[in-house]
Specification:
Length: 407
């Protein structure tokens, strides 16, 4: 049974305070997807893909556990913020000391550690949105947080692409990024309170009962499968985009980051408009339109040979990416509020599994046919995702239930 809690409308100040941490998550995603592939001292495509994905394979098991744990927890700080307060400093620590590792094995260990601890903090942060905001405010809050996240991505990419470092990124980037992530997350932890009266704490169940309850949310589970397919394709591109620019378009490190910058700039500018369109026609149609646009961009990537040709392709991809920023709000409409945390973990688990799988696919494709072949992976993944996504129903009664539930 879903209980109704009194969640007050969020002020603009509260939205801003929640979104400060998104600057740090933006730093992390830009660093892992675009910068880390250039810093790892190895030409092994599989290793670079495994290390540069923002989701580590351990998250397949750990993140659903963290999500379920946060659903059933209450402390003086609430149920989501303790995870952020403990895990994010550990993530920042391992990121900062990565350049001190004596060899490639040490670097790999540090990357695995800071990625894992980041995700332990990031999923409760995502779930916190549903705790503090009414359902009708979540698309707006999500859009604001996503825009701020892309401001973080743009800011970091600009600093590294146009900053004082020249054409090659130094190892100093590790501690600088770590400090930025830590400070922004701690600001949100300090300024965003969690209210006990507005939180439905999930009771403890036996494992069999819990698994059966999760399986009963068939629409949500089907959606997770669709996201698995999509993320398999998009992870292949994100991790290899800067290397594609260097190997195929023959540009420098800094120029490769500038191309990555185009995608995140367009995405950041159009995320709020995409949310506004979703309020009128629904979230699912906007997500499907975004997949179509990304598929068009992927098709064009097979023939581009110069930076001038690739720019419009990246703009189209950025528009599609803005539409896909609504993936999380759609999931919150498919599950009851007391299960938001565990489904945030399951979503991350699916992303971790897809990232691991896509690393092997990318390595095989690049080894056999070169970097252009990664766009074939994306096209196949989008088709599989859309076939899975189209039958999902966001019924009127689902929206009503979520609207009367805690935020």
């Amino acid at each position: 049974m879903i209980e109704t809690q009194d969640v007050q409308d969020l002020s603009k100040k509260a939205m801003a305070q929640y979104s400060v941490a998104s600057i740090g998550t933006g730093f992390f995603y830009a660093f892992n997807n675009a910068v880390l592939p250039l810093l790892i001292p190895s030409n092994n495509v599989l290793l670079v893909n495994l290390m540069s994905n923002t989701r580590s394979i351990e998250g397949t098991i750990i993140q659903p556990i963290v999500g379920a744990w946060s659903d059933r927890t209450w402390t003086r700080l609430g149920r989501r913020r303790p995870f952020m307060l403990v895990a994010m400093p550990l993530s920042a620590l391992f990121m900062a000391i990565t350049p001190l590792a004596p060899n490639l094995a040490g670097i790999v260990a540090c990357i695995v550690a800071f990625s894992l601890f980041f995700n332990v903090a990031a999923d409760p942060y995502t779930a916190l949105m549903a705790d503090i905001a009414r359902p009708e405010q979540r698309p707006t809050l999500n859009a604001v947080a996503i825009v701020v996240q892309f401001v973080g991505q743009v800011g970091l990419t600009l600093a590294l692409a146009f900053g004082p470092f020249g054409k090659h990124i130094p190892a100093l980037a590790y501690p600088l990024v770590a400090a930025g992530i830590l400070v922004t997350v701690l600001i949100t932890v300090a300024t965003v309170p969690e209210q006990r009266e507005s939180a439905h704490i999930e009771p403890r169940h036996r494992l069999g009962e819990y698994v059966a309850a999760l399986q009963s949310h068939r629409q949500a589970m089907r959606y997770l499968v669709a996201l698995f397919f999509y993320n398999t394709g998009i992870n292949t591109i994100q991790v290899n985009l800067t290397r594609f620019a260097i190997k195929v378009l023959h540009v420098s490190d800094s120029d490769a980051l500038k191309l990555f910058l185009i995608v995140i700039l367009v995405t950041g500018l159009l995320t709020v408009p995409a949310a506004r369109v979703a309020e009128r026609i629904g979230i699912k149609p906007v997500i499907i339109a975004g997949m179509v646009l990304i598929a068009l961009a992927a098709s064009s990537a097979f023939v581009v040979t110069t930076i001038t040709q690739v720019v419009p392709v990246l703009i189209v991809a950025g528009i599609g990416n803005a539409c896909l920023s609504l993936a999380w709000p759609l999931l919150t409409l498919l599950v009851p509020p007391e299960r938001v945390g565990v489904f945030a973990g399951l979503k991350t688990g699916a992303e971790s599994l897809s990232a691991f799988f896509s690393s092997f696919v990318a390595a095989a494709m690049v080894g056999a046919w070169g970097y252009r072949s990664i766009f074939t992976v994306l096209l196949v993944a989008i088709v599989a995702s859309m076939v899975t996504l189209l039958p999902i129903r966001v019924a009127a009664q689902q929206v009503t239930v979520v609207s009367s539930a805690p935020g």
